[in-house]
């Protein structure tokens, strides 16, 4: 199912790019040691949403205001780093930033980009032109992770016009590998691709352009 017409899974419910969020007390209380060593997960999350709003796109996260906003994103210190994709039209849809999720800013930006409606770059239909997926090296137990490498229908997806190995939404070379030291699950076909694949430093230039194409600037009135 696609929400939001031409904006796919994007947040248009409160106006394009306006996203109510609620931060759990537990998330707020987490220490700098549970963040990146000098800042708490809460501080890092707040910094990330300010960065997107001011420098990347017209995306405004605003505090959940109870009954007036039935749908909102629930930011919590979960067991892992994960987010539900786009506006799912439900209350308390999850954005979990647990252990090590706020260590690198790019990991936070990755999860927020899911919230904004974006899938993983390596699930694009044109991925085989840039990378090789080695499904035989992907974990099948205790959890079968092979579906994480499925190609996603274009009906569901907002993507940049070109495949972006440097996207913050691209998996790294050994994601969900049965042997992270010797078996790759994704290999870039060029050195240029391999050099940037899986980076979690910042949005790539193409990520920024893709976000801007979807949410502006120019910002909606
Ligand atoms: Zn992801």
From TrEMBL:
It is an enzyme of class 3 (hydrolase). The active site is at residue 111. It holds the Pfam family Astacin. Binds 1 zinc ion per subunit. Its EC number is 3.4.24.-. GO terms for biological process: proteolysis. One of its GO terms (molecular function) is zinc ion binding. Keywords: Hydrolase, Metal-binding, Metalloprotease, Protease, Zinc. The keyword Transit peptide does not apply. Zn(2+) binds at residues 110, 114, 120. InterPro entries: MetalloPept_cat_dom_sf (IPR024079), Peptidase_M12A (IPR001506), Peptidase_Metallo (IPR006026). Its cofactor is Zn(2+). Signal peptide: none annotated. This is Metalloendopeptidase. It comes from Owenia fusiformis (Polychaete worm).
